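WARN no homologs supplied; continuing
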Amino acid sequence: MELPAAEKTLNERLASAMSASLRIPHVVARFLVSRGVSSISEAHRMLCGNAGDVLDPFLIKGMESAVEWLLDVRDRHEKVFVFGDYDLDGMSAVTLMTRALAELGIESDWRLPNRFGDGYGLSASAVEEMHQAGARYVITVDTGITANAEIALAKQLGMSILVIDHHQPSGDGLPDCDVLLDPHQEGDTYPNPELCGVGVSYKFICAVYSRLSMPEPTKFLDLVALGTLADLVRMTPENRVFTKCGLKSIECSCWPGLQEMYGDLMKRHGSVGGIDVMYKFAPLLNAPGRMERPDPALKLLLSPNMATANALMAELREWNSKRKQKEAEITDMAQAQMKAMYGDTLPTVIVVAGNDWHVGVIGIVAAKLAQEYHRPTAVLSIKDGMAHASARAVPGFNWHKALFESRDLFDRWGGHANAAGFSLAADKIDELRTRLAASAQSQNYTGEEEVATEPYSYDICVSLNELIVDSSQYMPVHENAKKNQLISVLDFIDLLEPFSGNFPYPVFRADNIKVHRLRELKGGHLQMDISQAGSRVFPAIGFGLRKYKNLLSKPVSVIFEPTWNYFNDKKSLQLCIKAIEPYTETSSEGN
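OK structure emitted
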């Protein structure tokens, strides 16, 4: 949709002022303006960070009591059991808490649930097992806010419980724990309620260290970055500071497990970005828990040395291969069921269920189906008369609201707007379908919202000549940067990390593109060199874009992400093409 002329002019003036004041390429300034950055100071904050965005941890409701609880445990020389969820946010929180307790001189042990035996979150069996192991003091991280019955059991058994969570309360009252930290509880006015589980855990440890006059434990921010990105929480100013610093520290992490992962996954090349965490680190760390049990991943994060980390990394790769195979099988079965059940008329909310589908991968399958069909999707695995589900949302639909309205159907449920999990009797699945359709209607979600959007959205149109700039004209982006050196605009885009959640990776469009040296690779990928109106030639790759091959003999428009390519220990700019269209004179109108 074409912007009004007056708005275009205002945007251009702001981008020009931003470029001149901050000494950044005009294309980067235009990108920021397109994302809603409305002032030079806001742009500076995104490029360089702002320590003032880090808030006082004692603003969180219950923080004083939580600090006193832990210091009392330390004074008593008691042992603490740390119980966390089995996803990466939970494992990062358990790792942070375990390492911090060791520094504080507090003995600890940890527990993670097994999604196949224990299900989601704290369970009665986990409480009983910890009690039998001698637990008197327990900290739950990234879980606990909805575990009312389980925490009541723990209290009956004589345990003292500190709950650290970031999920929404169930609506049936808060758990009767000794202390509760959750920025979503009623009466909490903390300015950043969008912290993830490891984020709230970090704020707690910062408060404890502050009370003891210890330095701020920023070495834990690499763990905070992992959980924040993997859990897709909003990139609020505080979350952005934590994640930006945490991504940088992964390259020189204190922890052998992350050192091993960085060397193996990044080949010790350059900085780690949000996409690297989402598509390299997170799948590997989540793989064991999806297939059997999460313990190997947590043990990697807690590795005492590089030899142990190396062995565990090899084990995680094996688990990830098994996960990919099982995921592909269930995706095929789910799509076949959709075709048989719905035909060409999709419901507003997709619900598919299969006997003994692997519970560990149904969340990934749900995400794939939601993305492909533009519908909120729940994938259920049925076993022994019970269905265990994982659900993923699309814009306009809130899973937490939908499940809350039907909570009488569930044995257990939890999650947030974008992702949730639940279990119910298999004979209630049809009733659930009816209720979800009604909930979609009450949320004014029709399922048609995505239809009107363009096939592949992008931020701004660019000229390929804008992608390479003279370093002498702009702010320094490297400590060892040389003057009058040609550098990539991607060096400046890297300063805007993290890209995730509500701030996705930049996508550009370029028109009237000529293709050189086109090569088709195995798997239907296209590798090529491209240029535009006499510009330099840029290497490009289009994954899975073979179907567009016949368009490339003539000028085209391409939508792409600028990415780094590493080869022979050198990095260079490579354009990752997402979509290809025939070029016409009106191709770029409206931007």
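The mean pLDDT is 92.
OK
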